[in-house]
Specification:
Number of strands of chain A: 11
Helix content of chain B: under 10%
Number of domains of chain A: 1
CATH architecture of chain A: Sandwich
Largest sheet of chain A: 7 strands, mixed
Structural class of chain B: mainly beta
CATH topology of chain B: Immunoglobulin-like
Distance between the termini of chain B: 41 Å
Low-confidence stretches of chain A: none
Radius of gyration of chain B: 14 Å
CATH superfamily of chain A: Immunoglobulins
Radius of gyration of chain A: 13 Å
Structural class of chain A: mainly beta
Helix content of chain A: under 10%
Oligomer: heterodimer
CATH architecture of chain B: Sandwich
Number of strands of chain B: 11
Largest sheet of chain B: 6 strands, mixed
CATH class of chain A: Mainly Beta
Shape of chain B: globular
Largest interface: A-B, 29 and 24 residues
């Protein structure tokens, strides 16, 4: 099936540093998403993105978070500055449509903030 | 907000047995997906099934939308099926998709 790639698979950084998580979505998909899963906890929606804009974000999407997809390249999640509670696995997803559409997920990036 | 309840929370089977996993949700779903999450954490989409019955390999999902429930049947379980099975739904609310996930069913298949 369609593949979503995420780079890197693991990232370890010191608290206060900036980190950028990269997602290579399915090539003809137009809608993009980030989800967060803290170890041992439920997967939770962070943000969705379409046509260059954030359409909806959850309360987990703090002011230190930002997303973009410049010129159809990677869809990125940037955290600046990072905090200890940002340690989690971040999953990227994409879909062709907005409503009713199946979302395809990447393998996740495990972020550890020390 | 939407709620997704999965049962059982955990399940232990002998290899070759069948498994029936349940997902109940609090509001009408326009999209429902079943995922497998490996012990290492990676996520695999199994089925997209907002209504009706779908089969793929040893998996069968039946979703009864008006009763707000879905099931995932795993036949002839294998040790490699061990992991967590997640149900996620989305409701058409005028906004774009955002899946709400259940807490999952942790399956262990013993040889």
């Amino acid at each position: 099936g369609p593949k979503v790639l995420q780079i890197p698979s693991h990232q370890i950084i010191d608290m206060g540093q900036m980190v950028t998580l990269n997602c290579d979505p399915v090539s003809n998909h137009l809608y993009f998403y980030w989800y967060k899963q803290i170890l041992g906890q439920q997967m939770e929606f962070l943000v969705n993105f379409y046509n260059g804009k954030v359409m909806e974000k959850s309360k987990l999407f703090k002011d230190q978070f930002s997303v973009e997809r410049p010129d159809g390249s990677y869809f990125t999640l940037k955290i600046q500055p990072t905090a200890l509670e940002d340690s989690a696995v971040y999953f990227c997803a994409s879909s062709f449509g907005g409503n009713y559409a199946e979302q395809f997920f990447g393998p996740g990036t495990r972020l550890t903030v020390l | 907000g939407q709620q997704v309840q999965q049962s059982p929370a955990s399940l232990v089977l002998q290899e070759g047995e069948n498994a029936e996993l349940q997902c109940n949700f609090s509001s009408t779903a326009t999209q429902l997906q079943w995922f497998y999450q490996s012990p290492g954490g990676s996520l695999v989409s199994l089925l997209s099934n907002p209504s009706g019955t779908k089969h793929t390999g040893r998996l069968t999902s039946t979703t009864v939308t008006k009763e707000r429930r879905s099931s995932l049947h795993i036949s002839s379980s294998q040790t490699t099926d061990s992991g967590t099975y997640l149900c996620a739904i989305d409701k058409l609310s005028g906004s774009f998709n955002k899946l709400t996930f259940g807490a999952g069913t942790r399956l262990a298949v013993c040889p």
